[in-house]
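The methods section describes the discrete structure representation at length, but only in general terms. Each protein is reduced to its one-letter sequence and a matching series of backbone shape codes. I believe one specimen quoted in the main text would settle the matter. An entry of this sort, consisting of the sequence and the corresponding backbone structure tokens, reads as follows.
***
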Amino acid sequence: RSETDGVNAPGPNVTVSGAQEYGMPNALPRAAEPDEHRLQFTDAFSHTQGKHVWKVGGEANLVHEVMINLFQGGGLYSYAPGSPVSAFQNWSQDIFQVTPTSGTTGYHYTSFTQVYDPITHVGKDDFWMKEPAFFFEDTWKLRPNLTVNLGARYDLQITPDPTHPNTTSALATYYTQKLKTPADRIVPRIGIAWTPTNKTVVRAGYGIFAALTQGSTYYAMRVENGVYQTNYNFNCPSNNCAAVAGAPEFPNVLFTPPGPPLSAAFSGAATSKVTPGGSALVSSFHGLDPNFVPPIAHEAQLAVEQQVPGKMTLSLGYVGSRALHLPTFIDSNIAPATGTRTYNIYSGSGTQTGAITLPFYTARITTADASINTGISGVSSWYNSMVFSVKRPFSNGLEMLLNYTWSKATDFGQVGGAFGTFYGSDYPIDPYNIKGEHGLSDLNQSQRFVGSVVYAPPFFHNLDNHVARYIADGWSFAGITTDASGFPITPFMSANAGGGIDGGLTGGTMSSSSGLGTPGRAPFVGRNSIKGPDFNNLDFRIARTFPIHEKINFQVLGEAFNLLNHPNILSEATTGYFYIKPGATADGVTCPAATGTFNGCIAPEVAPFTSTPVGTPTGTSGVLYTERQLQFSAKLFF
């Protein structure tokens, strides 16, 4: 297939079977995301008195955030689920208008989303964050071999409240009106260094660390609140949006998008135009719980370092952390469950292996609003690790550093990286039971070994033969290897159950960007319950230095990244199960007819019905690690 998705393409964006094919990328135009200016003033004062070294200081950070990014402002059409072939056929009927008399031309898509900004029209926000901080520290040398470090720090993050909260309902006002500034973040730290012998050092420490919330999280609540920016969604049953009131005809959009003028995607394709009508629709938006606060972390460590023969030191230590008030995002406009629904569970061979009963959500708390993607500070995490290190400083031509870490990280569904910044979620099965998501962290890596060696043979420095010394001396070799356990995988569903809010299995799962329901993970399989592939990488460098003059040297280097060309799997398929409606047959499984609270069947995605079952490698290249690469260079030192 040919993909023409580009920076300067006009809206809307079109995805077919999950792949962005053409149109305006969802995050563009990105005039200022972010445009951040920081004024920072800092100073510290120290004083030594007897066995004490006192230090006191502070800083003032003034952060000016200007963000201009109407995410999904160009509109987004999606053709899925179903097979890639059926999704492509549905798109073809719409883009070429091949069935003009059917009454459904232009309505074969699965969903449409467009964000509109009636105030700035480009998704602009402009605000200041004020971040003062103060600290006090006392380094106290109790004895010649015992030092104690005591301190405390105070942090504050002040962000202005939204100027135009959403007042469509009491619930909307509650989640879009107030940003909380915790003023009690006085956090202590203590550290101890003890040298019982001249070859042994014991170090211990504990502290509480206060974090800050990214400006983009506050930005989303301040302006993507249904007033500055309104999110209009259409989720269409049976790939037919003709029956959904207000749904636009493909490839039209509800509002004039930012960026290039609307046009036909290519010769022969239908031309996009603005067809107003979405203003009367119920919209979804972002919000923050009034008690939403930046996270804090309790961290502790204990290490013993021992010098051993061979000019080496051995270190064994424990590192632990418990984080509180981590963010997660749920649909807060879901009324308590009206009852339960039961789903039959099938094996890959089509045999029923059990059943699961889940709470089922069918109503909104307020019908004036759709989903309210709300940030809450309700997630905790735990990290425990053992670290073993061997160090040898450079001596006699050899330097060595070996590190092995065993660890375990768990949480209640914290989203790693940038996804958490932009209201991502791990899709809780039950939004009223976040603790039910307890499992391995997305970033859990149980074992990791990193070893580096530098060797410069010293044997040829003093050769009497000048020619022999020039040939044999000046070589150096270096290598670093990384061997690590794989990150865990969560098996997700590929289709929704009917009858719930937004069509989710319980109604509690949703997409962060559109507010539409998503199936989430398979409810009977634990979050992050599948181990991903391990990681192995070896980099190597060889260098030769040629002395030219007393202070002039010429060096030639050869470097190999991923020397063994090991195929590291950096991404895997995560769709593990699919939903079957009552009375339907799919992939060799016939689901019984609906009776009572029975609401369908769940079966695994297995061959030959799918070529990408959960865990199937989908990528072996990344920003840092890819296939073997060789690099040659030369340097002149003078």
Observations:
- The helical segments are 84-95, 170-176, 215-223, 418-421, 466-472.
- The chain has a mean pLDDT of 86.
- The longest strand covers residues 372-395.
